Amino acid sequence: MNHIENVREGIRSIQGNVLRTVLTAMIIAIGITSLVGILTAVDGIQKSVNATFAELGSNTFTIVNNFDPWSRNRGRSAKINPPITYRQATLFAAKFKEKYDAKVSVFANVSGAVEVKFASKKTNPNINVIGVDEDYLPINGYKIGAGRNVNKSDLENSMNVAVLGQELARNLFGDADPVGSYISFLGGRFQVVGMLDKKGELGGGTGPDRVLLVPLTTGRALAPNRALTYTITASPPDVFEGETILAEAAGLMRNIRNDQIGQDDSFLIERADALAKNFEEITGYLRIGGFVIGLITLLGASIALMNIMMVSVTERTREIGIRKSLGATPRVIRFQFLSEAVIICLLGGLGGLLLGLVIGNLLSTVVSQGTSGFVFPWLWMILGMVVCVIVGILSGVYPAIKASKLDPIEALRYE
């Protein structure tokens, strides 16, 4: 009996007990689903993050205030630096633009708990109002879906105009075009001049689709009794070396902030690609964790499969005796039972791959708010099927050896 005939015999044996085969394959499918599903979700989230940072450019960086309230816990007193002022931020922007022909945006969070009203509709008091300039959208990867961006005229005249995030616009206006309508917030009446394309964000919270953008000068007027903290985002041409441009930016900002020689920077510079690398490192750990969880689940499935194969050997003892009496060698018996175990694992693996793809992509879509797209992780799919074969061999080898060692005379007497 050749190997092909052995495989066919194994398939016929599987077909002879469909219910047990389906239940066993489902155990394997659950293990493969957990393995492929988690890894697919991680790949989808990573794809979304990479696409987001790719829009910003490799040299893009952000300058924020350096405030470390937890430093006291590390054995030193906390250093509270003064916030970056409007004068400092605009001075840096002007000098950096002039020297490097770069795009530089200055913006400030006006309030993160604003209720916005339109006619009889109003939002929850969780809208983030940001004062921006005309370069804020392109530098931060936003695109206008309708209307226009904030322009220089709006900034020079402190106009009461607003650009809405897509989710905010849909909550207030539904499917209607919001451009030209008037909304109210923070005691003022503003005309909507633009709506952003959907951007999405990992997780929830006050994301980029729930923002409300106003001219920076208007934003300053909305907070007359408190000093805003300004943030600077710069995007120099990619021809500049990243580390060199960061050093130049740090030197310029230290001079503007009057940081003394030997004193730590009173600000922080965060590179966009550095954030992407940090996230990639985190997803690496998530992949390891997902792989371990999947292997643990498959370990339980392999034990269950081995137990079922042992039961199958016991049930088919007389059949094994007949085969041996007709000339089947122990090698043929071993191969037949191994084939059955591997085929069951492959059937379960195929089902697990489909479920893993669906569940993994669903998770990544939810987490990235629809920006990840559909992911086919070919490496994890191939790995999943290889693992299926290995599990089938490990689960079937002991029952196969036991079956091959049965004495044919005793097996024929078995009732």
UniProtKB/TrEMBL annotation:
<dbReference type="Pfam" id="PF02687">
    <property type="entry name" value="FtsX"/>
</dbReference>
<feature type="transmembrane region" description="Helical">
    <location>
        <begin position="378"/>
        <end position="401"/>
    </location>
</feature>
<dbReference type="Pfam" id="PF12704">
    <property type="entry name" value="MacB_PCD"/>
</dbReference>
<keyword id="KW-0812">Transmembrane</keyword>
<keyword id="KW-1133">Transmembrane helix</keyword>
<feature type="transmembrane region" description="Helical">
    <location>
        <begin position="288"/>
        <end position="314"/>
    </location>
</feature>
<feature type="domain" description="ABC3 transporter permease C-terminal">
    <location>
        <begin position="292"/>
        <end position="408"/>
    </location>
</feature>
<feature type="transmembrane region" description="Helical">
    <location>
        <begin position="335"/>
        <end position="358"/>
    </location>
</feature>
<keyword id="KW-1003">Cell membrane</keyword>
<dbReference type="InterPro" id="IPR025857">
    <property type="entry name" value="MacB_PCD"/>
</dbReference>
<feature type="domain" description="MacB-like periplasmic core">
    <location>
        <begin position="21"/>
        <end position="237"/>
    </location>
</feature>
<comment type="similarity">
    <text>Belongs to the ABC-4 integral membrane protein family.</text>
</comment>
<dbReference type="InterPro" id="IPR050250">
    <property type="entry name" value="Macrolide_Exporter_MacB"/>
</dbReference>
<keyword id="KW-0472">Membrane</keyword>
<protein>
    <submittedName>
        <fullName>ABC transporter permease</fullName>
    </submittedName>
</protein>
<feature type="transmembrane region" description="Helical">
    <location>
        <begin position="21"/>
        <end position="42"/>
    </location>
</feature>
<dbReference type="InterPro" id="IPR003838">
    <property type="entry name" value="ABC3_permease_C"/>
</dbReference>
